[in-house]
Amino acid sequence: MSATMQMRLGPDVVFDLPTLQYDAFKESMEARIATIDTLGGVPTQQHYGWQRTIDLSGVRFPLDQGGVTPLDGLRAMIRSGAAVLMTDSAGHVWGEWVVKSLSVDSSQFVAGNAPARQAWSLSLVCDRE
């Protein structure tokens, strides 16, 4: 693995320092609980699993960092809906994840309508650990 790599998502997306570096990493886990009404009593709660999410965000400068194409792999993952393996630079396997959303805020346009700055955020949902 590259010395500048932070994470790899599937075979095609590498979060690394020169092209697609994240500046913020937020991990959350939420219990999935359903409320079940009972006849004449207090509703009861039924735990039926959990959901783990990771939110990544960063700012990239496409003119200096490989153009706009590094985000294309994430867009393709959203279209496919497939779960892909995520690993980090230490070799830790995080399990399989699905890309839930990608948001890109492009600004500071130059000749040819190319963005000089892109703030991006990505939300991943764990499919299996």
Please explain how this structure is put together.
With 129 residues, this protein is mainly beta. The chain has one domain: Elongation Factor Tu (Ef-tu), domain 3, CATH 2.40.30. The chain is 7% helix and 60% strand. It has 1 helix and 7 strands. A 7-stranded antiparallel sheet has the order 2-1-5-6-7-4-3. Strand 3 and strand 4 form a beta hairpin. The chain is elongated and about 70 Å long. It starts with a strand and ends with a strand. InterPro entries: Myoviridae_GpU. This is Phage protein U. It holds the Pfam family Phage_P2_GpU.
Q: What is the rounded Rg?
A: 19 Å
For this entry, what is the oligomeric state of its chains? single chain
Low-pLDDT segments: none
Q: Quick one: overall form?
A: elongated
Give the N-to-C terminal Cα separation.
Answer: 21 Å
At CATH level 2, the architecture is Beta Barrel
Fraction of residues in helix: under 10%
Helix-strand topology string:
EEEEHEEE
How many distinct folded domains?
1
Average pLDDT rating: 90
CATH topology: Elongation Factor Tu (Ef-tu), domain 3
> Which strand-content bin applies to the residues?
over 45%
Structural class designation: mainly beta
**Strand order of the main beta sheet, please?**
2-1-5-6-7-4-3
The helix count comes to 1
| Biggest sheet overview | 7 strands, antiparallel
The total of beta strands comes to 7
- CATH structural class: Mainly Beta
